[in-house]
Amino acid sequence: IAAQQLSPDVINFAKSLAPGRVDTALSLIGYPDDLEKAMAYVFGSTFVCKDPQTAEQMAFHKNIRKKAVTLEGDVYDPAGTMQGGAKPSSAGILNRLQALKNTRQQHAALRKELAAIDAQLAAIDELKDEYVQISRERDLAKHKLSLVEQQLSYSSHAHMTSRLESIASELAVQEDTIPDASARHTAAQKRAQTIEQEMGEFSQDKGGKIKQLKKRLTKLKEALPAAEKKMKECQRVTQEVTVEKEELESEISELVAQAEGSDSAIKAFEAERDEIEATLAQTKDELDDKQSAFSRLNKKLLVYDKDIAELDQLHRNKQSDQTTIQLESEQLAHELERSESAQGKNQRTLDALTKEHPWIMDQKLSFGQPDTPYDFIKNDPTQAKRHLRKLEDQFASMRKTTNTAVMTNIENVTKREAGLKQMLKTVIRDKRKIEETISSLDKYKVETLERTWKLVDKDFGAIFGELLPGNTSRLDMLEGEPLSAGLAIKVNLGGVWKHSLTELSGGQRSLIALSLILSLLQFKPAPMYILDEID
Fold first, then answer.
1. Among 24, 174, 387, 502, which has the minimal tally of Cβ within 10 Å of its Cβ?
2. Is 89 a residue whose pLDDT tops 60?
3. 281 and 135 Cβ atoms separated by less than 8 Å
4. Where are any strands of DSSP class E within 389-460?
């Protein structure tokens, strides 16, 4: 089979002429690959249009001229024929089968998407297991850290640390007593100065001063043992504190070394803890993301389950409809067989009646027509039979006194009149269609003439302006006449419009003629021009 397909240029031009309202019939049909040539042979040169105006453009445009069919079934042929159709009131079996096929394809696509979602859920389950493992490792690391801290609290380092803190507090107390000792030293210095002053006064007044000193000396002697005892106690405490301080300093140095080692271990544990916590936080974020994705996928899966359930229900409905359609098709097939047999029987009866009554062929065009004797809707066959018997009785009685040859002529003339009236109706209908076609063609002709006139007039003035600079020309419609009656040439020379070519010289008329010829050739170019005696 030789395929018949539209060229891409014609398709692109048609779609640009009516965007969104035209498409090729072949692109709207699904078919197996082995039927491509047959489908192209049947549908390859046909357009499908949304409205009659677009179909008319596809059929009668000079750059397209291809067969077009509307969605309502109207056919437009470039040869000029048009056929009307009616859109079916209900969808056929093929449409239902196509809908069932599309539903099955959607069901298969949803199945694939469901399988992909299951794979993602499996991956999320693996991440969940990994998160549980990491959480266990984190808990184990925290437990190890708590054990290390507990061991440190029970070690000698902890005891040393507590003792160091107590010594530090005692040192702070001793440091607080230093300002008091300084104050006492300052007071002793002032006291010494006072004593020196008193000694000076004593040298001047020895008797009175000796008495005072003796009294004071007696008091001091009395207070001296207690002071010596207190001083010895202070010296002892000072020595003990000094020794203890030295021991504590050595212990502190050892504890500082141990503390530095413990600090390094603690820092290592803290770094490990921070790393574990960072890994845990990252894993938790990933788990949150996966859980949110899982929730979204779960919601989407619920929607898909609902859609799949609806599609399954639709599939079952379609299968039920298909079963019903098959039963109906079988019933229709049986009815068709009965109708064909009845049609054959009726055809044989009709042939016998036609052979028996030749007038049937003459009156055949009037059968079923309204307002005729053969209007089978208004006229009851039973009453017609009764009337026929009555007329046959009258005919039998009148036949004896009537010239049958004249009646036969009248019947023939009546039949001929009915046929002529039917032909007249057909001619009037065809005339109306022809007039509509002529009107559309006249409209198209006027539009084409106006478009051509504007283009030629533009080029005519431009070419004349180039041949004779400073001047111009144009093509005007005749006053009071349509465009098809002709055009008048108007020339502007030196700012003055010439209304007749007789006012021009021979050279100017030659330039006008040359401009007109070149503007016409520019409107519809040819590969080559031969101009002989152009002037």
1. 502
2. no
3. no
4. none
**pLDDT category, 338, cuts 50, 70, 90?**
confident
Residue pLDDT, tens place only, 484-524: 888 888 998 888 888 788 888 888 888 989 899 889 888 88
Length of the chain: 535
Measured distance CA(362)–CA(171) in Å, rounded: 146
- pLDDT tier for residue 427 given thresholds of 50, 70 and 90: very high
Alpha-carbon gap, residue 18 to 29, rounded angstroms: 21
**Mean pLDDT calculated for residue range 166-175:** 70
Strands (E), 269-319: none
AA identity, residue 194 = T
| Residue 23: strand pairing partners | 48
Strand duo 46-49 + 67-70: pairing: parallel
Q: Are 497 and 491 in contact (CB under 8 A)?
A: yes
Closest by CA to 107, choosing from 310, 299, 297, 319, is 310
Backbone angles phi, psi at 420, to 5 degrees: -65, -40
Beginning with the edge strand found earlier in the chain, give each strand of the sheet holding 496-498 in spatial order: 472-477, 487-493, 496-498
Higher-confidence position of 138 and 67? 67
Compute CA 326 distance to the chain's CA centroid, rounded to the nearest angstrom.
39
Q: How many CB atoms lie within 10 A of CB 281?
A: 10
Mean pLDDT (the chain) is 79
DSSP string, 426-440: HHHHHHHHHHHHHHH
DSSP string, 162-210: HHHHHHHHHHHHHHHHHHHHHHHHHHHHHHHHHHHHHHHHHHHSHHHHH
pLDDT at residue 90 is higher than 50: no
* Mean pLDDT within 423-431: 92
Query: What is the rounded distance in angstroms from the CA atom of residue 376 to the CA atom of residue 354?
Result: 18
Lowest mean pLDDT segment, chosen from 59-68, 115-124, 358-367, 494-503: 358-367
CA–CA gap between residue 200 and residue 203 (Å, rounded): 5
Instruction: Note whether 448 and 507 are within 8 A (CB).
Output: no
pLDDT category, 369, cuts 50, 70, 90?
confident
Sign of torsion over alpha carbons 267, 268, 271, 276: negative
In which region does residue 27 sit, left (phi positive, over 0), alpha (psi from -120 to 50) or beta (all else)? Answer: alpha
Query: Secondary structure of the chain: what % helix, strand, coil (to 5)?
Result: 75, 5, 20
